[in-house]
Predict the structure.
Amino acid sequence: METWDAIRARRNVRSYRPDPIPDADLVRIAEAGWRAPSASNRQHWDFVLVTDREQLKALSTVWRGAGHIAGAAAAFALVIPQPADERTRVIDQYDLGQATYAMMLAAADLGIGTGHSSVGDQQAAREILGVPANHDVAYLIGAGYPADRPLRPIIKPNRRPFNEVLHRGHW
């Protein structure tokens, strides 16, 4: 898929076929996150790749919006050190947003659907993944082949009109 097509095809997928994802594709998705830009190239992230069905089910309980993780073929947990101050927290969250989108776009390019989730129960997430107490599991990304329809460019997306979003020179 071309980059522009992947951008237009990417959508949140929360219902997956049971098919496994080849390891090479999972590694490619993780590498996309690894290659994402970060402030001062700090790369304050670690990624935990989960494909074990029981772990996926357990992870689906760490946030009310994480239910789709149980049915995913895989999930990526994005982990960051607990921030020393508010500035670091904001920068790390922005960096994780860039890594998240890079991973989701790489997945779309491979025809793999993704759906993201926050993590509310940090203690449970740390225990499930073996994450140290001085780190937070910031987000989860479920991945799998879409159960309903394959990814393809969306011609008329359900978005605010573009001419209401883009401002030129002033508001």
Remarks:
- The chain has six helices and four strands.
- The beta strands are 46-50, 74-81, 113-118, 135-144.
